[in-house]
Amino acid sequence: MSNTLFNLQRDHLAHLQRAYSDILVAQGLDSLAIYSGHASYHFADDQAATFQTYGHFMHWVGLANVQHSWLVIKPGERPQLYLYAPADFWHLPTNLPEEPWVAEFDVHLSSNKITPPITGHAAVIGDIQQLETSTQQAIKAEYQPAALVNALDELRMFKTAYEIACLREANRLAIAGHQAAQAAFIGASAELDIQLAYLGASRQRESDVPYQNIIGLNNHAGVLHYQHYSLQPPKQRHSLLVDAGRRFRGYCADITRTHAGPDAPHGFNDLIIAMHGLKDALVKSTGPSVEFVALHEQMHQQLGEILIAHDLFKGSVNEAISEGVTRAFCPHGLGHSLGLQVHDVAGLRHPDGSSAPAPALHPALRLTRTLRAGMVVTIEPGLYFIPMLLAPLRKTSLPINWALVDALIPCGGIRIEDNVLVTANGFDNLTP
């Protein structure tokens, strides 16, 4: 790790120490124990599911696979890290990296699972319900107090310079994967081959990705969370959609690109270019004091203009929006908060922790906040040809060019996604 990044990380840890102390004092708490979590075994099996460390633990430690460990925070004192490190010849023993930031903690290695040593009026956060009953009973503290969790979630909404550097590096690594995926598509690969190319170029194993990569060829690009990888290349290559990320020190990149294939119908590549333009316009509209819901509505306004300009809809923009045409072509939200989790915390809450639900017309929107400097969000407009969503429109007299829609259905759809930092003066696109 470079000295620059360590200095940023040291400042980040000092910031967390101050912020946590203020929050704990304000809530009358003497100590806080954060449980890292642990993987759950599949039913009637000895194999565990993919695991991710609890976000508030990872906020301090920056490692995404720490299990059965505790972090104890007390106002004005050094953080105490109790790392579960059993002697084990079946697996590589748990260990912290030999990096300077480790010295910012008092580290206690334990070969046994422990009960955290908390004192006074204490709180515990994390999934302790998965712990053994005896351990749960031994912990005398408030479990998951809502006011505390809301305050810590709000803290994570605003990224330090260290976190921004990590997110930027995660984007750089992910872009290498996207370039390799595009090259594999040009080489007529199957979805599985494209996935493997992505993993190789982004230097990660599949269990380490921040979310299951979406590699959709042709109509699979219209399945928003497509979950499979076909083993054989299709006979025709209309399109490829790659929604894939990378972690760096726990922080996530979440990038989507869409490519036209050699068999794409006329006009599909022009639509991809138009959607890149829409994404760029929305990124440029991002900044402090901007309502994210208003950005989402801007997406629908400009999507209506694209539908008209490309002869998919022959009415007005207002008609396309009011009659639900744009929602049928793009059913998801514009984006979400991004950080240690891909869909990061506090996106649907006000700063005071009260609920800020998605509007009724846009129930899939994951972020309803007023943007502030330090937030990192995704901007990901989409345009899809999903028969299930278009079917109700076919029963209307709306001026939709169904012949063109039907020609584009084999392409599935288009999504373009960048990761954007809100700055004091506007924005910084972290996706190179």
From TrEMBL:
Binding of Mn(2+) 2: at which residues?
D243, D254, E417
The source's domain of life comes to Bacteria
Q: Which family does it belong to?
A: Belongs to the peptidase M24B family. Bacterial-type prolidase subfamily.
| Stored InterPro entries | Creatin/AminoP/Spt16_N, Creatinase/aminopeptidase-like, PepQ_N, Pept_M24, Peptidase_M24B_aminopep-P_CS, X-Pro_dipept-like, X_Pro_dipept
Its recorded reaction(s) are: Xaa-L-Pro dipeptide + H2O = an L-alpha-amino acid + L-proline
EC number(s) recorded for this UniProt protein: 3.4.13.9
Identify which cofactors the protein needs according to its UniProt entry.
Mn(2+)
- Please list the residue ranges annotated as the Peptidase M24 domain: 166-424
User: What gene is this protein a product of?
Assistant: pepQ
Q: Which GO terms describe its biological process?
A: proteolysis
Name its species. Vreelandella nigrificans
Which is one GO molecular function term here?
A: phosphoric triester hydrolase activity
Q: How is the cofactor bound?
A: Binds 2 manganese ions per subunit.
Instruction: Give the matching Gene3D superfamilies.
Output: Creatinase/methionine aminopeptidase superfamily (3.90.230.10), Creatinase/prolidase N-terminal domain (3.40.350.10)
Checking PROSITE patterns in the record gives:
PROLINE_PEPTIDASE
Question: What UniProt keywords apply to this chain's record, in alphabetical order?
Answer: Dipeptidase, Hydrolase, Manganese, Metal-binding, Metalloprotease, Protease
Residue sites binding Mn(2+) 1 per the record: D254, H336, E380, E417
Q: What's this chain's function?
A: Splits dipeptides with a prolyl residue in the C-terminal position.
User: Which stretches make up the Xaa-Pro dipeptidase N-terminal domain?
Assistant: 10-153
State the Pfam families in the record: PepQ_N (PF21216), Peptidase_M24 (PF00557)
Give the first-level EC class, as a single word.
hydrolase
Please state what the protein is called: Xaa-Pro dipeptidase
